[in-house]
Amino acid sequence: xxxxxxxxxxxxxxxxxxxxxxxxxxxxxxxxxxxxxxxxxxxxxxxxxxxxxxxxxxxxxxxxxxxxxxxxxxxxxxxxxxxxxxxxxxxxxxxxxxxxxxxxxxxxxxxxxxxxxxxxxxxxxxxxxxxxxxxxxxxxxxxxxxxxxxxxxxxxxxxxxxxxxxxxxxxxxxxxxxxxxxxxxxxxxxxxxxxxxxxxxxxxxxxxxxxxxxxx
Amino acid sequence: xxxxxxxxxxxxxxxxxxxxxxxxxxxxxxxxxxxxxxxxxxxxxxxxxxxxxxxxxxxxxxxxxxxxxxxxxxxxxxxxxxxxxxxxxxxxxxxxxxxxxxxxxxxxxxxxxxxxxxxxxxxxxxxxxxxxxxxxxxxxxxxxxxxxxxxxxxxxxxxxxxxxxxxxxxxxxxxxxxxxxxxxxxxxxxxxxxxxxxxxxxxxxxxxxxxxxxxxxxxxxxxxxxxxxxxxxxxxxxxxxxxxxxxxxxxxxxxxxxxxxxxxxxxxxxxxxxxxxxxxxxxxxxxxxxxxxxxxxxxxxxxxxxxxxxxxxxxxxxxxxxxxxxxxxxxxxxxxxxxxxxxxxxxxxxxxxxxxxxxxxxxxxxxxxxxxxxxxxxxxxxxxxxxxxxxxxxxxxxxxxxxxxxxxxxxxxxxxxxxxxxxxxxxxxxxxxxxxxxxxxxxxxxxxxxxxxxxxxxxxxxxxxxxxxxxxx
Lengths: 216, 473
Known about the structure:
By secondary structure, chain A is of the alpha/beta class. Chain A contains five helices and ten strands, in the order H-H-H-E-H-E-E-E-E-E-E-E-H-E-E. The longest helix of chain A is centred in the first third of the chain and has 15 residues, at 2-16. Chain A is elongated. Chain B is an alpha/beta fold. The interface between A and B is large, with 75 and 100 residues.
């Protein structure tokens, strides 16, 4: 059933295009375009790439902090916790489990929960053009941790900052044949203007995004 | 969704007298138009990007069969399913079948214009399913049982007070008994209610801004994060997308994304741009177990065949309506279907048939601003002119209008009579409107002047002024 529907639809599309046969050369050209994709015109960037990245991220209300190493992450997160007497209850991406989280905290090293005060995840790249952070799903990096928390803490190594999204695609292509299940480009906290055109933060996602820029 | 655009003129007249609507559309004009202008001015490469964007779309449409097959192959390779739907009924049936097989009760939806086009919510609700829109704007118009009035800002016609009343009526059931009027509190209620729905949903349905043949991914852009929770938390993720959404590669998508955010919102990029590719992988702790894509034709292959192919470049940014004097006067609902403004005036007759939308291509002053701001350079005025011509040929034009145009044609081909008549009219109207250069009322045109003033002629005709100018040289 699905087979004939599909074939009928493709036949209609080919008919609309004039039912011409593609020459082997034409097919080869299309294949080439897929394997070596051309790059379009892009905004020119400042000479100070790191400076531009931070400026763009901050302009989009991402809070940027520098930490000297991953070992400094736990103390940096501690500062962001609400000052209640209860033990902190947060979620941390499994890939950051080894960082020595205090045993007095309740830390969920799993997928995001319905009530999620704060989560900590690791970015695979940053983009200078827009000040965006890229996260990639994997067993050690659940996507829900990027959207369910009130406060989203993201760690990014300065060496993973690239100029354009095209650079991220190129790196991902070279790393694996299979494209990741989910790639998130996050450029600011969640917001909406659907009530009276007034900007409200957050809508469904995090109210604030803290980027921990880690040297190296 | 039912097309109700048989009586565009009636709804347009009503909209012109609606003060609250006039206020909201004028906000749109100030906000979006200025923001887009700033974003474009800040980017010297913008014109080159528009050319590149149009070229990418043309190349893809020219090879649409090839790229759709490649896209399908990649989705299937990574464990997803691709379904092909020739029309709205077929698309709804496919989604209903997936939901039935999943034993679904609750469905959460991200924003999808194609799902509005195929009237998916109505079809699913007829099966007894609970369907909840998750984009705050779509959620509000769903509660109000209305259609979106703008493709990017669905609630542009609603005031905060309207929304306060609506939530006060409907959110009691969730324990929100007080009427609140603060935008942040109102959105807070939506956030709380939807959080439960995301976790309860069996199926999450989203649209796609782009489908990528290279990787088998669908890309959605949002500012709220609703699309991401919709696609990640439900057990089944269904993507509904028109066949024209496919692009060859991620690099091509990057070009179009740069154009989209600037044209739609005047921003460099939206809060969230998300690429989803297939169901959850081995070891993943979240993500859907099933991933389906429904590719919808619904009149698009017909557009592909002829002069309307450039319309398939459309990336649904809404810039054409934000800059359209007609849209900004009458709002989105006057267009009577899911796609308003210039793009809607072309798409509606093409998708929902001519006879149902015969007035829309005429609701245009041919001023050309839509084409100037279109990020993929769709020649919207040309397409609208062509639609008018086709409607004339097909006999969809009312006899009164045919008679009027016939009369004008007779005048235009008899220059002596034409000049005498226009000289007389310009002199009379010029004297009538002498005091302030405008006329509040005009004999035989009461309907037209009810919503606007007629600028008074200078008292002489263009022909006379032209002749005088040439004499003076």
